[in-house]
Design goal:
Membrane topology: Multi-pass membrane protein
Subcellular location: Cell membrane
Organism: Actinophytocola gossypii
CATH topology: ABC transporter involved in vitamin B12 uptake, BtuC
Shape: globular
Order of helices and strands: HHHHHHEHHHHHEHHH
Pfam families: BPD_transp_2
Number of strands: 2
Radius of gyration: 20 Å
Distance between the termini: 34 Å
CATH architecture: Orthogonal Bundle
CATH class: Mainly Alpha
Protein name: ABC transporter permease
Length: 331
């Protein structure tokens, strides 16, 4: 039960902050349109339905990780373990469904909950043990990377006898329409996360902790409990991302996760979520994820070497972070 005192401490965000957030989303969306227009002119192979669905398909994993990370960053935290955690969850899905021969639905739920367990451990380390989020999640990143190799025996786990599993990502729910199920999953998850962030106690406390953690605690809210809840909730998206990437590949690859954390965090920041906490949105995060996927796709079509793609993405991240710094100065 939420007391009056708690309600007063988590009042809605100021109108000015909401307006600035909307403007940031519009700026990010305008950037996406400009990037899309540039590649459409630069290559005749870019502006096609097949390539458009390919961009959406490649956004699924980054977008799923970024949605969960949005909650964490809004609290003023960070999670570096999402990439290798995703790989570990993918391996665990193989263990549950292939090795243990659990029913598909049970294996899927178990994988998502395993991701939540990882987030729970992160939350306990950060909220109760007072370990800085950077260090706590860096440690979890290394633990997850090692466990993925140990559990899998450093070998992929294939889902060749589980065609229903791969159809979660690559199948088409709508007959005759080439639109992968993975994109539908991302849309549904984004809607649910958006509602939770803007319409529930979890969302209100997430913003409140990020805006002013001390004031939130003084208002009678158990900040430690809600921090743990946020990290555990974000962990569910790590589990889901593990399912989506292994379903897409048709196998659980224990070494696939490294680097995804940077792209997911970049998507969150590009979408307007402040690294200092207190501001952010799911819509902005999805736009940020689409910007990264569009850049990667366009650069590949133009045959830009991978090393230069990394340079360009790094520059985009720098610009996004500097923009966040300028926003804080103006505030």
């Amino acid at each position: 039960m939420v007391t009056t005192r708690e309600k007063s401490g988590v009042a809605g965000r100021p109108v000015g902050a909401v307006v600035k957030g909307r403007l940031q989303q519009l700026l990010a969306f305008a950037s996406l349109i400009v990037i899309f227009a540039f590649f459409s002119v630069a290559s005749p192979f870019f502006f096609t339905y097949g390539n458009f669905t390919a961009i959406l398909f490649s956004t699924v994993v980054i977008g799923t990780l970024a949605i969960g990370t949005t909650f964490v960053i809004i609290t003023g935290g960070i999670d570096l373990s999402i990439g290798t955690g995703m790989a570990l969850c993918a391996v665990m899905s193989g263990v549950f469904i292939v090795n243990l021969d659990l029913p598909l639905a049970v294996g899927l739920v178990a994988t998502v909950l395993f991701g939540g367990l990882m987030g729970l451990v992160n939350g306990i380390n950060i909220a109760l043990l007072k370990i800085p989020p950077f260090i706590a999640t860096l440690a979890m990143m290394l633990v997850a990377e090692g466990l993925a190799l140990v559990v899998s025996g450093s070998a992929p786990i294939y889902f060749s006898e589980e065609p229903a599993y791969t159809k979660i990502s690559t199948g088409n729910l709508i007959p005759g329409v080439d639109f992968p199920n993975a994109v539908i999953v991302l849309i549904v998850v984004a809607v649910i996360a958006g509602v939770l962030l803007t319409k529930t106690v979890l969302g209100r406390y997430t913003y409140s902790i990020g805006s002013n953690e001390e004031a939130t605690a003084l208002s009678g809210i158990d900040v430690r409990k809600w921090k743990i809840a946020v990290y555990a909730f974000a962990g569910l998206f790590i589990g889901l991302a593990g399912i989506m990437i292994s379903a897409r590949l048709g196998s659980a690859q224990p070494a696939t996760g490294m680097g995804y954390e940077l792209q997911a965090i970049a998507a969150v920041v590009i979408g307007g979520t402040s690294l200092s906490g207190g501001k952010g949105s799911i819509v902005g995060t999805l736009i940020g994820a689409l910007i990264i996927s569009t850049l990667n796709n366009g650069l590949q079509i133009m045959s830009i070497p991978q090393e230069w793609q990394n340079v360009i993405l790094g520059c985009v991240i720098l610009v996004a972070v500097y923009t966040d710094i300028l926003r804080k100065k103006e505030a």
